[in-house]
Amino acid sequence: MGLLPIFYCYYGGSSRVGLYYEPSFHENEKSTGNKTCDLGLSGWYSAMTFFKTLTLSEERNMPMSRVKHIVMYSLGRLVIFMFDMILLSCRIEVRGLEDAGPYMKRSPYLLASWHGRLIVYFMGPRKGKPAAMASRSRDGYLASLLQETGGYRVFRGSSRKGGKEALAQMEQYMRDEKRSGMLSVDGPTGPRHVVKPGAAKLAAALRYPIIPMSFSARRHKTMRSWDLLMLPFPFTRCVLIYGKPVFVPFNPTAEDLANVTQKLQDELIRLTEQADCFQ
Question: What pTM did the predictor assign?
């Protein structure tokens, strides 16, 4: 698909570029605008393939030229724009704010979701430059570029490489700047739908509530990846569900952290099953 429809939407269609589902509304369903554009997903796949090619030099620790930096940043902005336009064309129902909303209004918090539902990074609140984490792999570099151009402050590390340092930097940023954060709690390489302990440790250090969230779409594309990444088709119906906040006890023991991790996993599984039953 050519770029003409994209530029038409940007300059002649809706001027709304970002989707910010802040917890300030009280309706149970949110319909996103009238001006839409059927971008499809073919442009997304092409852009991602080209984007991965450009990230090879990062993975090999090779210096990138200024031109390549500009190209990658511009392509990242384009992919974010395509995601926003697809989501603007969808009919999105938001649930669960009766439990999560009060905590999201009055204080910073930590959002938690599955790696395979990464689309929530573009559906959740992005104002105020919240923190996020991406691995140091090539795919992680790609994810970090998309997150940064989408409004996040990204820290790079994983359980295999640089995770402790990245988590410490993320904690420091969130504490100093009083920012919220978001984690894909089974990433970066799985096992799928198994929560890792980083979210509980980060929430304990900051004394933030953990707010689980999940997403599903009636019509979608499931990628052939370990996380079964879900991407919605344009003009479909979607549901975004916030779960009950999970709290870490003050000065927790290792057993407390394990219990919080298990509770978060159970709640995310429940939310995802509920979302996937959405009709």
Answer: 0.76
